[in-house]
Amino acid sequence: MKNIAVIGAGTMGNGIAHTFAQYGYKVQLIDISEENLKKGLDTISKNLDRMVSKEKISEDDKKNTLNNITTYTDISEGVEYASVVVEAATENTELKLKIFRHLDQSTSEDTILATNTSSISITQIAAAVSNPERVIGMHFMNPVPVMKLVEIIRGYNTSDEVTHTIMELSKKLHKVPVEVNDYPGFVANRILMPMINEAIETLYNGVAGVYEIDTVMKLGMAHPMGPLQLADFIGLDVCLSILEVMYEGFKNPKYAPCPLLTNMVRAGKIGVKSGEGFYDYSESKKAEKVSSQFSS
After folding, report:
1. Which residues belong to any copy of the 3-hydroxyacyl-CoA dehydrogenase NAD binding domain (predicted)?
2. What is the dihedral of CA 96, 102, 108, 109, to 10 degrees?
3. Is the pTM of this model over 0.85?
């Protein structure tokens, strides 16, 4: 099991590719956009440079990691020899179903198909392939090279063998895999997203300002990052998408997205990646100020 295909070169995809490559796996990084692949590789290279500067890895380690990654714009070509495929595309149900239908036709029957989805049903995604027992959730945390947790989500038909294999594979990446069952939001986001949504509600209702809310949670609850800043780093669009999946799945009003969150996403203010969310990241000095305010 040395060939790992990763679909999607965005924040999660390039982080997953980086992690597998760093531990000696041959990685086929796949994205329909050459520009996205270039940005993904640039991000991996910069993150490796940061690790070299902190003396966590050597220059040779960096070189070997980058040499372990090959890029593709054709999914069929990229997954041809993969033992495991990790899909890390945008958190969109129809897109993921389309990708898995393609994978059903492009991979051998013993290739494990994993999805990095943070909220979409593994059972629903698995229904897109002819043998759903080989489909599993492999939910990495951001930033992937740093965060230890991998949420391993079993779909209704996921086999014991596939689950065991992915649990062991995660350990070989020096991660801590935790097995959970397939319900909306799984564990991580079922607990995290209502907290973030409540923080947004607190702001929306005028109880306190952004800095004040985050400071209370940092200093009072020992959170390394306040919930509003964390939402900015996750992406407000992603937070909204996850809450909508949970609201639809449970039909419980406690998961209904705050109107402020919905309006911010509509306005394109979705956090760090857009330059503005609850904080302004559009100017380097402002970004540095925010970072210093919330550094551990």
Report:
1. 3-182
2. 60
3. yes
